[in-house]
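Teaching note: in complex prediction, the entire set of molecules is handled at once rather than each chain in isolation. The prompt given to students was simply: 'Predict the structure of this complex.' The entities are:
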Amino acid sequence: MPAPTPRPTIRVVVRLFASLRERLGTDRISLDLPEGAPASAVFPALFPAEASSGTGWPGPLMYAVGHAYVTAETPLADGDEVALIPPLGGG
Amino acid sequence: MPFVTREPLDLARISREVESPAHGAVCTFAGVVRDHDSGQPVVALEYECYPEMAEREMGRVRDDVLARWPGCRIALVHRVGRLLVGEVSVAIAVGSPHRAEAFEACRHAIDTLKATVPIWKKEIHPDGAAWKGNRPA
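The expected output is the structure of the full assembly:
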């Protein structure tokens, strides 16, 4: 039987802030995801327990790629800088 | 001048940036660290930002105001780091020919900033701390 073709992956850099940064103990982490993964795939990949428990922590997330807001469905590309944006507190 | 700084904010200096002989009004807004929130005492706020994106989004707030209120000038700066009660966290100045636009544009700028600029705050209480998100305007 032929070996299964490895699923293509992409590598992104995730920037973390506020409660997310504190929980993971770092403000920046490299993450491998399947090709075509949307921005919304980042949170469950980094915080599987919190994502599956449905506690709602840390509140509604927004996403940014390359320093600009994107929708949760936006497909990520290899080399992207992705940010998880927890509820804002400026002002 | 950068849009985000760790240095104390000087509202008078920011106001001078929008001076113009064509303006009959300058409206300024200062966000100030309050000693309580939702009935809980607050001793300080710790602000952090996504530096590259905060600069970009603050620029978008400025550009949006200039597009909506042609003839206005606007200056806006947000401070990050640990701020004590009474310190200014954000300062906005809008100059315009007449007062109505200055008030409207200043209000629009702070409301948009709070909803779009990637800045976060942690409330420091006497016995703990908590990240606090903005309520809708």
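Point out the following to students. Residues 53 and 87 of chain A are 19 Å apart (CA to CA). The longest helix of chain A spans residues 18-24.
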